[in-house]
Design goal:
The structure is a homodimer. Chain A is an all-alpha fold and about 200 residues long. The first copy, chain A, is about 65% helix and about 0% strand. Chain A binds a DNA duplex (30 and 30 nucleotides) through loops.
Chain lengths: ~200, ~200
DNA sequence: CAGGGAGGTTAGCGGTCGTTAACCTGAAGG
DNA sequence: CCTTCAGGTTAACGACCGCTAACCTCCCTG
């Protein structure tokens, strides 16, 4: 839980700015000179830190997927240790995903937008991490709503991801009703969506 | 309601293929030669039909936004004519959006991905159409759930759009549980999400 | 049957972009 | 004090890409 107080490395600066620029204008829409300028160095200087532009995107996407999966696993394990039910685990997963979506909006945008720009091996890795993350959710969701078939649960999970990942469309951070309220609203809506998916007896 | 039986014009072919390619690899990731090849002509031949590559994207995005807004307005007007309540109007809006998301998946993808690649004037137009569409929903949603503040309703609408627009992530059309089932699931989830947003008294 | 426009073709220009090459500099270490 | 090396710099190359120019070929029409 060591909260970092030391300054970010140049490498981390580059990744952060690259993520922002890629999210704003797309991978092909951003030049290496722009990324360099964003961290105060110029174009080719980036090649002291990364073998190429592709490598930056790859590291970003692998990092995102891995971070989501690791966080999800941790939350499932923690909750399983206590006496809480599956509902609490689901709440924890939702909370973690919302935190990520609200804190790292550019990364969320990249996550489902630029995957196809990766080399085959990297793309396979990211897809595998994503799949594991989805399966994590599917298991928990089916435990809470046993009526759901597995394909339906998977569709529901993907749809809730779409709901939670909508934060980049909610306007600039200032125009939101406040982070806490937004998080609470998203959480309620996600639970409501799952509940509706799990009970086909709607009017 | 004249269902078209005549063959699509060359212009329409181009737009359709361009939409698919843009959705797959991004606007900057597709060359005009590829678009031409996709319709059986080669590169510069496209310039007999469009003034430039940008114009294809512009026409696609303006078309999408306009189509959504027009359809939404029509549905609101139709339902308002009958004796049905706001709930029925909301259901109709959801149904229309789902139809669009399931039938024109590449367009849905483009819709919130490549907007920034447009000329200023086109982007303003698209944004204006989108805003009107959102306001259409917000009004209906607040009628059904009067407890929602206006900002909360707008956030909820954007989030439900994220949910409904998740169809491109649901795997290839073949792997879905069947179009009707998928549409029904999405519809239930959207209603559940709105209901949860509208009643802060969750446990 | 002339002729003109719609809708193609290929060749090529000009600009952009990712990447490499060659060089510079300041700080650390023996 | 000399060396080394991490981390920069600018110049330039080669590929790609959007677009234009110039030309061709049907087909429709008067």
């Amino acid at each position: 839980m060591a909260t970092r107080t030391d300054a970010p490395t140049r490498r981390e600066q580059i990744l952060k700015e690259a993520a922002r620029l890629f999210a704003e204008r797309g991978f092909h829409g951003v030049g290496v000179d722009e990324i360099g300028a964003a961290v105060g160095i110029s174009g080719p200087g980036l090649y002291r830190h990364f073998p190429g532009k592709d490598a930056m995107l790859a590291e970003l996407l692998v990092g995102i997927s891995g971070q989501l999966l690791t966080g999800g696993k941790r939350r499932v394990a923690e909750a399983a240790g206590g006496a809480e039910g599956a509902e609490a685990v689901l709440d924890s997963l939702i909370e973690g995903h919302i935190d990520f979506a609200l804190d790292d909006r550019p990364l969320i945008t990249l996550h489902d937008r630029e995957l196809d720009r990766l080399r085959d091996s990297d793309r396979k890795l990211v897809r595998q991490l994503q799949r594991q993350y989805v399966e994590l959710w599917v298991e928990v969701v089916r435990e809470v709503y046993p009526g759901l078939t597995e394909p339906a649960a998977r569709s529901a999970v993907h749809s809730v991801f779409g709901l939670l990942n909508s934060t980049p469309h909610l306007g600039r951070p200032g125009s939101l009703p406040g982070r806490g309220d937004t998080a609470a609203l998203l959480h309620r809506m996600a639970r409501g969506a799952f509940a509706a998916a799990g009970s086909p007896a709607a009017g």
